[in-house]
Design brief:
The chain is of the alpha/beta class and 250 residues long.
């Protein structure tokens, strides 16, 4: 079985309301994602990293919720606090602002990972799959030898890797919004191949696996576009609500 850690801190850039309490399809996002995890066939327990004001929305309402961790500025530190409650080999880490993810998506992605075998798994979604399901959404794409992809928002990883690679994880997190820092972390050869669109998925896997103490990291070309859709700004939320209405009228 798998423990899920939900990253429920943060807020929309234009509002002071926590992301966890944003309503979508009649429920706060924290309730939607917790319900989906509660119904998952693979998830045995849930740990929520949320602001204290959010806790009452879910406390005592879900049998799989094992612990709460108060969110804060240092996300990596909070994840390690949550790991103290994890007693399974694998951990599923996901943000709260993925409104279209349900239990079918969660279980489907986990199954895709387990079929590949490895120590950690990162989803990538093709541009065609995203645009077919969510036309008009704006995502950041990267061109690889195998096609054009965007990254997903759900990660499956062995708990032990967090402790073996803490310094590297912190380095990646600190560099995530700086292309030059990411190039230094990944290696200039891999970075340039990525810019040119000639990087193969397998080459990227080998490089990241080496950086992770030779753990076996896998990119999963998932068939679930819902994993790639998150909410960062008000306009994102309005676009998703528009897609929701279009889908319900189809």
């Amino acid at each position: 079985m798998i423990t899920a850690i939900v990253l429920g801190g943060g807020q929309l850039k234009e509002q002071s309301l926590p992301k966890s309490l944003i309503e979508f399809q009649g429920s706060p996002l924290i309730v939607r994602i917790t319900e989906a995890l509660e119904k998952s066939s693979y998830v045995s327990s849930i740990i929520l990293i949320v602001p204290d004001e959010v806790r009452n929305s879910v406390d005592g309402k879900f049998s799989k919720v094992k612990a709460f961790v108060s969110s804060g500025k240092d996300l990596i530190e909070k994840i390690y606090e949550a790991l103290d409650y994890v007693d399974t080999e694998y951990v599923l880490i996901m943000p709260v602002d993925v409104p279209f993810i349900n239990e079918e998506v969660i279980d489907g992605f986990i199954l895709e990972c387990l079929e590949k075998k490895g120590d950690a798994f990162y989803p990538i979604i093709s541009k065609q799959v995203i645009e077919k399901r969510f036309p008009g959404t704006k995502r950041t794409y990267g061109k690889l030898k195998e096609g054009t992809f965007t990254g997903g928002n759900v990660f499956l990883i062995k708990k032990s890797l967090f402790y073996l690679n803490r310094n590297f994880i912190e380095e990646i997190y600190a560099a995530r919004k700086n292309a030059f820092k990411m190039a230094r972390v990944a290696g200039i050869g891999i970075f340039l191949k990525g810019l040119l669109g000639i990087l193969r998925i397998r080459d990227a896997e080998k490089r990241v696996s080496k950086l992770f103490n030779n753990a076996e990291l896998k990119a999963v070309i998932t068939k679930y576009p819902e994993i790639g859709i998150d909410v960062d700004k008000i306009e994102d939320l309005e676009m998703l609500k528009k897609l929701e209405r279009v889908g319900s009228n189809a």
